[in-house]
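Changelog note: in this version the structure field was regenerated for every chain. One regenerated record is shown below for reference.
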Amino acid sequence: MRIKDILRYKSGKMEVFGHKYTFYIDWLFDRYIKGRSIKNELNKWDSPAKIIILGDITIKYPQFFKIKPEDYFNDVLSEMLYDMYIQMNPQYLGNVKVYADESMNFRKAFMRTTYTDELKNKFFVLGGIIVPKGVNLAKIKKLLKAPTNMKEFKFKYFANNKKMPELLKSPRITTILNFMLDNNIYVHINILNYWYWSLSDIIDSLILNDERLFVYQRELKSNLYDVLNKNYEDAYNLLIKYDYPSIPRGKEKDFIIELVKIYQCTLYRHFKPGDRGYSSKKFLLNFLNRSKNVGELPFIQDNPPKTLLDTLAYSYNQTSVAFIHQSITFDNEEKIRNDLKNINKTYLSKMNCSFKDSKNSLGIQLSDFVSGFTSRLLEFVMSYEDNPTPSFIDAPKTNDNELLNLYLFKKLLDKSIKFYRLSSIRIMSMYDEIIFNNFLNMFSKMYEIGQKI
């Protein structure tokens, strides 16, 4: 049963739940906070009903996140559907304004006719700020002593033509991060790794033949990405050869055979038993070998050849859904607006969002900083493929502001995720996510230790 079936089940079950369903949710939660077991009561329901009931309690009472789904479900799929259910039902955040802008928008991601590394370690970020009522954003201009004639106050003002890691020395970045923390301004980020996204349809096509693997799809996608990223050139050239994502009919087996060859050689060259995720990478190799005789590859056939991504509207869609109860304002992107209208003509009214020229919105201008800083920091960290730290570990010692800014950025991210779980949406390899988190954790800890010395 998929999440859409769970939602359909709910609408059909309301006669069972009855008009007193809201009171039933309140009663269960009341029992829970009083320390009484609700497991026996929940066992009266089948798994779909449990997903709905537990999910609705979690949505209404965020403190219920302390529960462990495995205490209530007997299978991994139910746990995953429970998590998906609550994520599809965002909470009301109160009296706040939400703004967003983008960074690293290629408009279209496509395969060149010859090899290029332009997609490697590139991250599209749709990010921004969540501003509580009463916060005066204009104060940041005074704090930074910005020129009064400045039309737009965007990321380039903070970057000042510098790149990472030099950019991290900027005292302007320190000022804006402190301003956000001091005024309880939260950030939200929606990250999409272009190369990870491009490869993920391979896994989506193959697991249709074995739906038991559905619950492991992110791990499978992460392993494919992690291995092929070590041999990016050969993987890229393979996709060019087969007009990816439009594998010719009758060439499915040939494509998988060549993919297996590249994957296997790269796996044994760059990974060894005991390495992070080695056993699951080996499992994927076996799965790819078993898939050689697949009849079709539905998500990577009959598409425009070499066009990996023709719109980023779905990232806007995700962010809009995440803030469905708030009024979210995006920077004016005409192509995105048109793409959204093609998806649904009444999209803007349904999704409670609007587009505005950034020149007329300081909230969008500050969102440009959030998305720009995040995308460039991600690209910088991931550019050290084997180990992200050695080339950078000595650099912060020359300027304490580098460590301070990393510390403040991590603190802001943690505070934002604690405030609202959907403030961070990440379509990227779980291994890259671990590397990025470890990077921030390590240098934040270095800063904290330095403060104690």
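Spot check on this record: Residues 70 and 79 are 7 Å apart (CA to CA). The first strand starts at residue 96 and ends at 103.
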